[in-house]
Amino acid sequence: MRGPIVKANTTNHTGTIVSPEIPLTGFVRAKQIHQFFGIGLSTWWLWVKEGKAPPGIRLGSRTTVWRAEDVRALLDELSREA
């Protein structure tokens, strides 16, 4: 069963509006996450390195994921600070 989804509209490189999704549970990749914070992919990785974002879970040599719950918690935390 799939739970409710949080959406944030963004524009891709061609100017088309897209709606990435963060599920309530499960795993998400950096390419899905960074758009919700309004930052670039390299900034997301910098946040992880600096400890501002939660550490990822390595699934392979080139695959890292984050728990959706951790990403949502960070979004909530940053929205309260704003």
TL;DR of this structure?
The chain has 82 residues and is α+β, with helices and mostly antiparallel strands. 39% of the residues lie in helices and 27% in strands.
Radius of gyration: 13 Å
In which range does the helix fraction lie?
A: 25-40%
Q: Average pLDDT across residues? A: 82
Query: How many helical stretches?
Result: 3
Order of helices and strands: EEEEEHHEEH
- The name of the CATH architecture of the domain at 25-81 is Orthogonal Bundle
N-C termini distance: 33 Å
User: Which strands sit side by side, in order, in the main sheet?
Assistant: 5-7-6
The chain-level structural class is: alpha+beta
Global geometry: globular
Proportion of residues in extended strands: 25-35%
Low-confidence stretches: 1-6
CATH homologous superfamily title of the domain at 25-81: Winged helix-like DNA-binding domain superfamily/Winged helix DNA-binding domain
Q: How many strand units?
A: 7
Largest sheet: 3 strands, antiparallel
Q: Which fold name fills CATH's third level, the topology of the domain at 25-81?
A: Arc Repressor Mutant, subunit A
Mind telling me the CATH class of the domain at 25-81?
Mainly Alpha
Q: Any chance you could write out the topology, listing elements then pairs?
A:
Elements: E1 5-7, E2 10-11, E3 17-18, E4 21-23, E5 27-29, H1 30-37, H2 41-50, E6 57-60, E7 63-67, H3 68-81
Antiparallel strand pairs: 1-4, 2-3, 5-7, 6-7
Describe this structure in words.
This protein is 39% helix and 27% strand. With 82 residues, the protein is α+β, with helices and mostly antiparallel strands. The protein has a domain of 57 residues: Arc Repressor Mutant, subunit A, CATH 1.10.10.10. The strands form 3 sheets. Strands 5-7-6 form a 3-stranded antiparallel sheet. Helix 1 packs across helix 2. The longest helix has 14 residues. The radius of gyration is 13 Å and the shape is globular. The N terminus is likely disordered.
